[in-house]
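Customer escalation, tier 2.

The customer says the design service returned an amino acid string that "doesn't look like it belongs to this structure." They asked us to rerun it and document both sides in this ticket. The original structure tokens are below, unchanged.
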């Protein structure tokens, strides 16, 4: 595929970062692109978007997280090890140029928790294959990641059903 790949960043405290990234994946799959999604901070819980994307032969999803919240002040060694595994897979994807669209879901949170080395991620992003589109999602995008990005979308919460006591709904929030 002879095209210019860019870095997109979806961040902010509002809902919709992962949803936007998966929507882009769906669009890319419709054009025959090879899509890889690395999910940091998310374990084996049943997410509707993961179930849907698994139906596409050109889409590969790998998860590097546990099915529990990470302690922001004291991450479990398992969280560090899973993030390290995800980073190693990321390095291989760039080396092999194995996809057209790469989504790094919740990588910004992994960076904020110091589960991944920020400088190494930034260096790796600058060495990505020039034809690969890369999308990074998650709150707390560091300034260094923002500087790498060609497009930044910040999701801002204006109103959310959680505020009125409505819990997360299957098919909508997960």
């Amino acid at each position: 595929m002879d095209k210019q790949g860019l870095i997109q960043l979806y961040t902010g405290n509002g809902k919709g970062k992962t949803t936007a990234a998966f929507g882009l994946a769906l669009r890319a799959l419709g054009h025959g692109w090879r899509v890889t999604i690395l999910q940091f901070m998310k374990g084996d819980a049943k997410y509707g978007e993961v179930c849907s994307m698994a139906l596409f032969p050109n889409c590969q999803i790998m998860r590097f997280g546990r099915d529990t919240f990470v302690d922001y002040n004291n991450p479990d060694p398992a969280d560090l090890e899973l993030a390290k595994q995800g980073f190693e897979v990321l390095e291989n994807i760039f080396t092999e140029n194995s996809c057209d669209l790469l989504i790094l879901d919740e990588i910004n949170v992994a960076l904020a928790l110091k589960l991944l080395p920020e400088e190494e991620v930034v260096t790796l992003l600058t060495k990505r294959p020039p034809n690969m589109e890369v999308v990074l999602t998650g709150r707390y995008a560091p300034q260094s990641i923002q500087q790498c990005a060609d497009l930044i979308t910040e999701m801002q919460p204006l109103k959310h059903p959680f505020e009125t006591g409505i819990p997360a709904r299957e098919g909508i929030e997960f």
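Tier 2 assessment: The sequence is consistent with the input. The first strand starts at residue 7 and ends at 11. The mean pLDDT is 95. Sent an explanation to the customer and offered a walkthrough call.
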